[in-house]
Write a structure and sequence with these properties.
The protein has 414 residues and is α/β, with parallel strands linked by helices. The protein has 13 helices and nine strands. The strands form two sheets. It has a six-stranded mixed β-sheet, with helices on both faces. Helix 6 links the parallel strand 2 and strand 3. The termini are far apart.
């Protein structure tokens, strides 16, 4: 569905739930839909299509995205928003632009008054006495919380098959998994059981389910969203992030939950950028797109690689030129060809920090091709740095190694 739509159109419940979150918000502000109607439409769809995650998987063919459905509170918040809008005045003018749009929350984020289990029977029935910061911000913005979504137990998994309470299914094919650990949030969004949702991401738990379900999942910059109230998996990597059906919806939800929090010592002090405006923009000038080219055809289901190549080609037609290395200009598509044992980094023509250290060489990746002396800035292992500098001094005229050059490997040492 495009961003242009008839805000005054008469829509049934099944059509309402298929709107984007921003379209729902626009209808709420225009008075053509109420929050109670939106919440009830989602609750009815959950009842019809989600099933019971605790039921026998063979006997219940629902999506099974939710561990807990927050019916009474969600409808109460929706009614409150509708009453404020109907009354008008300063309080109505002060409502958040997304007020009244429902949202789902992954069940490892604590919520006062609702169960928080992290999909583990060890926490079954536990009610948190406080809200996570992100939940407090949802409440402040008056987004009705539809319920808590399923995950791999304590977020340890990649398929949402390892919840203590039962599996979640991929809405596109009930015999397939939705990814994990946050498969419940992604499945709820993909199945129109929520317009958007919160997940948490340590090593892919928002992003992988998005890829599995055809939705949008974002792991924000570390510290951009408070971790206060998130049941930790790995505190130095965990981040709460949005799951949505569009980039603009994900940006809008990120705007709600992001920002500094004194309760989290790793929270960034920087003021959040206007991500919603950025997501709605269409000017791609200056954007660099990295394309991984080491993608063996046998690793993909038929059609996946073709679709990937089609989208890369489409980007190439939209103000991009195709580049061949990291020395490409900022408006180029850059092809990344990783070796089996190395981070292939060419430093010469782009700024330090462009990849935020993701390609630093270390003792686990001992082969580091050097194409310019500046490449040495990316070596963060002191012993390897000494070897690289020594090797550079005698081989400055050529790249030192290729990843299949075993003789070269022995020259630098492992």
């Amino acid at each position: 569905m495009t961003e242009t739509f008839d805000v005054n159109a008469t829509l049934g419940a099944d059509e309402l739930v298929r709107l984007t979150a921003l379209q729902m918000a626009e209808r709420l502000r225009a008075g053509t839909t109420t929050s109670v109607e939106l919440v009830q439409a989602h609750l009815d769809r959950i009842a019809a299509h989600d099933g019971d995650v605790r039921a026998d998987a063979d006997g219940d063919r629902g999506v099974r995205a939710y561990l807990h459905v927050n019916t009474d509170e969600a409808l109460a918040v929706a009614a409150e928003v509708d009453a404020i809008r109907a009354a008008g005045g300063p309080e109505a003018d002060a409502l958040h632009p997304l007020a009244g749009v429902p949202v789902a929350v992954k069940d490892n984020i604590v919520t006062r008054g609702q169960p928080t289990t992290a999909a583990s029977r060890m926490l079954e029935g536990w009610l948190s006495p406080y809200d996570a910061t992100v939940v407090a911000r949802l409440r402040e913005a008056r987004l009705p919380i539809l319920g808590k979504t399923n995950l791999d137990e304590f977020a340890m998994g990649g398929s949402t098959e390892h919840s203590a309470f039962g599996i979640t299914r991929n809405p596109w094919d009930g015999d397939r998994v939705p990814g994990g650990s946050g498969g419940g949030s992604a499945a709820a969004v993909a199945a129109f059981l929520a317009p958007f949702a919160l997940g948490s991401d340590t090593g892919g738990s928002v992003r992988e389910p998005a890829a599995f379900t055809g939705t949008v999942g974002v792991k924000p910059t570390y510290g951009a969203v408070s971790r206060y109230g998130l049941i930790a998996m790995a505190s130095s990597l965990d981040q709460i992030g949005p799951a949505a059906r569009t980039v603009a919806d994900a940006a809008a939800l990120q705007q709600v939950i992001g920002g500094h929090d004194p309760q989290d010592s790793t929270s960034l002090a920087d003021a959040p950028a206007d991500l919603t405006a950025a997501a709605r923009g269409r000017d791609l000038a200056g954007l660099r797109v990295g394309v991984v080219t080491d993608l063996p055809a046998e690793a993909f289901h038929p059609g996946i690689r073709a679709g990937f190549d089609e989208h890369v080609h489409d980007l190439g037609q939209r103000r991009f030129e195709r580049g061949t290395g990291f020395g490409a200009r900022p408006d180029q598509i850059v092809e990344i060809e990783p070796g089996r044992r190395e981070a292939r980094v060419r430093r010469a023509e782009f700024e330090i920090g462009a990849f935020d250290g993701a390609f630093l060489c270390n003792s686990a990746t001992p082969v580091c091709p050097i194409t310019a002396i500046d490449d040495i800035a990316f070596v963060n292992d002191p012993l390897l740095l000494a070897k690289v500098e020594a090797a550079w001094s005698v081989q400055a005229a050529q790249p030192i190694l290729d990843h299949d050059d075993d003789e070269g490997v022995s020259r630098l040492g492992r």
